[in-house]
Structures are given as C-alpha cells and as structure tokens.
C-alpha cells in the first residue's frame, strides 16, 4: 500500500485544526513576549479558572447533598466517593490513551461538553431528590435510581475533568513553555495550581453561604445554571489560545503524524512464532511441546503488550519518576482533605456549612501560598529537595490531627482537625508541584498523556480505598480510626520519596549544614534561657502571691 495518500490525508486532517498565525519558521525566531502574548495567557488562565470552578463547586456540594439525603450516616457520601474514584482508577489510563489519539480541538470539545453536561444532569437529579424529601420512604426504588444517576453523572464529569487536566497541565503548559527559560515552566505550573486552589477557596465559600442562608435546593439550581452558561465561554477562550499560539498548532501536527494509518490494520495470525533454535531442537528429536508452549507465551506477551490498560501501566512503570508518582498517589489515600467524608463528618459534628466553607477557604489560601513559596524554594534548593522538605512538613502538620483525637469536646476537636488539615496544605501542594515538574522534565513527550492518565488512575484507586474505608467505618464517631490510617499513608509516602531521593542523590541531607544549624540553635537557646528563666520565676511568684 502506498503511503503518499495517507500522508496527504494526515496533512489534510492537521490543516483543519491548524491555528491561524505565523509559520513555524517565523515563530521560531520570535521572542518569548511575542510568542506568548499576555492576553492569550490571560485567556488560558481565565478559561482554566471557569473549568475548575465547575468541578470545585460540585466537589464541595455533593458531600452535603448526600449527608442530607441520608442523615446520620456516611454511607451515601462514601458510596459516591467510591464510584467517582473507581471510575478514574479503571478508566484513567484509557482516558490518557484516548486523548493521545485525538487532536487538541477534539479533546477540548469532548472535555467541555461532557463535563458541563454531566454536572447539569447531576444538579438536576439532586434537585429532584431534595424536592421529594419522603421519596426514600414512599418509593425506595426511585430514590436509589436517582442517587445512582447522580453518582454516574458525577463520575462521568470527573472523567472528563481528568481529560482537561491532562490536556492543560501535562500538555499545553509544557508545549507553550518550550524554548523559554526553565523558570517559565515553573511559573506557569504555579499559576495553574494557584488558579485551582483559588477555586477550591472561593467555590466552597460561595456554595456554603448559599446553602446556609438560602437552601440546598438553591445551591443545586445555581450549579446546574452555572454549567449551562460557562461551557460556551470556556470553549471560546480555550480556542482563542489555541489559534493564537503557534507552538500549539505545531505540536498538534506532531500528534496527527503519530496517528496510526487509517484502514491499514495488519492482519494478525494465530500461528505461534517459532525461532530457528526451536526448529533445530525439533529436528533433533526433542519434544515439540516446548515449541508450542513458548509460542503460546509469545502470543500472550504480544496480546498483553497491545492491551491498552496493560500497555499504559508498562509505560508508567518504566519511568524514572515512578517512586515520586506512587508517593504522590499515596497522599490521596486519606480522609484529611476537606473532601466528601470529612465535610460530612464536620456537618455531623454540628459545624455550620458556611463555617466548613470558610475552613476550606482558609485551607485553600494556605495552599495558594505554596504556589508562591514553591518557585523560590525550587530555585534555591532544586525540585528534588523541595519535594523532600514539603512532604515531611505535611506529615508534621498532620500530627495536629492525631492530637485532636484525644480532645474531649467534639466541637473543639473538629476545629483542631480543620486547623491541622489546613496547615498541611502548604506541604501537600508544594510536593504536588514538585512531582508534576519532575514528570514534565523526565517523561518523554510521546508518553506524557499516557503517564498522566495512569498517575491519575493510581491516585483515584487509592482515593477509592479511602472511600471503601468510609463505607466500612461509616459511623462518624469512628472518624478517628480513619484519621490514623490517613496519617500512616502519608508516612509511607514520605518514606518512599526519601528512598527515591537517596537513590538519586546518594544522601538525604547535608549533615555538615545540619551541625551548623544545630550549633546556631544551641547558641540562641543559651542567650534566651537566662531571660526566660527569670520570666518564669516572676510568673510563678505572681501565681503564688
């Protein structure tokens, strides 16, 4: 078969999606400011903000919807979380491979339409459930059917959000920053994460106030209406970025050139492969069973290598950043995240919805600060060491949550729990940025989407296990057990990342610098101790008097 018609056809496909703009030769000579106009970057950030707002509104509200549909139990929030996480765990690698075979425009349309339509259906389903408060008593089958529809819609929306996350965070950001200093990629990563955390800050606060001062129904109506309007603006803004930045068009052409030939599928044969060594062994009178057995094994290996799910995992496991990826995924095996289970538990503890929203907002503000601190630390001590310091700082902050277990007052314990989780966000998001940048730097361009899909799949698989724990330990009074398991998972993640650091750098910390810091701390303590001792003595005398 001649390859000329195929090449012409691929060029024709690419030209349909080629953005208007200067040619590759002219674009290569442009300066960074001209190749990345501020207006286009602003459009990218605004569109990403709108898309993340959709997801963050639903993420916060769904836990409150489910706990109100079945008060006094975490079963519905846990089941929803399990369904959502299972969908990404099972189909995440397939999503990565699917979008690897589509053009940028096709991915945009699939992502935005599916995400917004799913959240509209989910919002409408919740409205129907809230309007029929007695439905679970009068028609339990209809009640379960509507809950299942809400779960399925939310899961589909989350899968489409995953496609958008891979496209923007793992693909477009890297392509746009190519040819510029490394600091450009770091800054874009920080800005994208800052936008996500800003949505995590503002969406729960807005939704919490609507729920507390209007009603749950009003929040569900707002969610459905918002997604109906937002999809058009998001598509317009993303397309303006695609058409205005030539590098994206050039990258799209490379993607099209990698697509498999249309209609040129090789016929497979069931005849096992027999090597010359096997032929000689048979001619010498040896048993042919080994030949057939080896051929069957080769066929099985061939089939496994072509299976999308297995192939994606093989690509992921051969990466040099597999240990940091697993460590990041382990951080999702937690209930200490202002997620569905923790939100539902705080509601059961009597914390008002607007206070939960504000607490989540404070948590997001602390997380946003990580996006400012990360570029500075990354420049000073490298990406690897920034990840090491950040994950252990997260672990230290979560010890506050462990201490909250022994507080007798349920309300005070809940507030201390919220404080510990909020404080840990700076370490969490700095570690997240560190691992993402390591993957961007060390994963080949042809593997980015696949590795991104598997990474999200692994994260969701562990998040699914956290929700399974919530189903097993569904009594809010036993939330302390979930807290201890979550802290244990963070401990394991920190140890795995430390092992990776030791493999790469052959040491974890500079002991000579540690000794200098220790001496400085001792000298400082000696200076402070006399005055502190006098103060304590005066304070004791005042109490006795």
What does this structure look like?
The chain is mostly helical and 545 residues long. It has one domain: Growth Hormone, Chain: A (Up-down Bundle), CATH 1.20.1250. It contains 21 helices and no strands. The chain has helices at 4-16, 24-28, 32-35, 38-69, 75-100, 104-131, 135-138, 140-177, 182-213, 216-244, 246-258, 276-283, 289-306, 308-317, 322-330, 340-348, 353-404, 410-442, 448-472, 479-505, 511-544. α9 packs across α17 (353-404) and α15 packs parallel to α19 (448-472). The model is unreliable at 1-34 and 262-287 (pLDDT under 50). Residues 1-34 are annotated as: Disordered. It is found in: Membrane. InterPro entries: Ferroportin-1, MFS_trans_sf. It is a multi-pass membrane protein. Belongs to the ferroportin (FP) (TC 2.A.100) family. SLC40A subfamily.
